[in-house]
Amino acid sequence: MNTKTSVSVSLTMKNTGNTPWNEASLIRLGCVGDSAGDAAKFGPVRITIPAGTSVAPGAQHTFTFTMTPPATPGSYSPKYQMVWEGHQWFGDKASKNIQVTSTPAPAPVASITVTAPNSGETWQRGTSHAVTWKYTGTPGSTVNIVLLKAGTEVGTIIGSTSTGSGGTGSYTWPVYPSGLTGSDFKVSVQSISQPAVKDTSNNYFTITPASTSSPASITVTAPNGWETWQRGTTKTITWNYAGSPGSTVKIVLLKGDVEVGTISAGTSTGSNGKGSYSWPIALSGLTGSDFKVSVQSISQPAIKDSSNSFRITYRGSTGK
Asked: What is the C-alpha separation between 106 and 118, in angstroms, rounded?
């Protein structure tokens, strides 16, 4: 028997005595050992003869009752015997060995639910966006992501990428600069090992054409050619920019192309294609002839530039 399954059983007993059996006489089928016996672990301790029924000497009666196995798996030997309540047990014992087993809880049903794009987003070609999803159960280690237009598959975003961890997954999609546009796109995320486990965006999202403006860029103009800057003085770092590199930049100091300090964690990119920052150079610190300055967009880290090498000396030094 399984711990989660109840069964209806029938047990036939014969009256071999001289007295009729009936409920009025308090003659019943009982669990041997009462509540301490194995039989009591499966169901009622007493099974009565229906009112109005009398089992004459020499006749048989079939008792029908439900057995529900205990929650603990194992081997059990429930025993049943007739009992004259308040007087004695009598007759043969009926016994059966029962093996109770446990069925493991079923694994959660695997599912995938797309969470982005899923609510009317607008994504521009030539930019990158995160396709995200949630999952339950075990949908496999990898998923396939495809692009749909008006319900028809029009391209593979990624043939195979990790399903994720902790119930969530994501893939950063670099949307090609050229290709279809419109307001009727959806994304489908599908388990590779279990193709039936998949989901598609609930709502359409829009893909617009790539920007026609010039690509954003930053060009450091000072220091940029063997200048000598002394510690303890203030110098102006300048740069030109094109396009839209974002509103703020980060400026760091490099020595031998290795970052050795932050000059400014965030300052204005500038206006009209030009930017500058007054740098109060600390009185103490590294010196040498292999320094560079890097100016980098904060919102678009790929847009940056580094100066040519320049020299930093102690104040009062000739730099030679």
From this structure: 31
Residue-wise pLDDT tens digits, 122-167: 999 988 999 999 999 999 999 999 999 999 999 999 999 999 999 9
Distance CA 170, CA 179 (A): 23
Distances (CA, A) of 217 to 145, 280, 302: 32, 26, 9
Domain 217-313 has CATH 2.60.120.970: no
CA 318 to chain centre: 62
Query: Which residue type occupies 161?
Result: T
* pTM of this prediction exceeds 0.70: no
> Which residues is 115 bridged to in the sheet?
none
Cα–Cα nearest to 113, from 186, 184, 188, 173: 188
Evaluate if residue 319 carries a pLDDT over 70: no
Instruction: Tell me the CA distances in angstroms from 301 to 98, 128, 159, 260, 294, one per residue in order.
Output: 70, 13, 27, 18, 12
Give the fold, CATH level 3, of 7-100. Answer: Immunoglobulin-like (2.60.40)
Instruction: Report yes or no: 1 and 103 within 8 Å, Cβ to Cβ.
Output: no
Residue matched to tokens 């995320």: 189
Domain 111-208, CATH:
2.60.40.1930
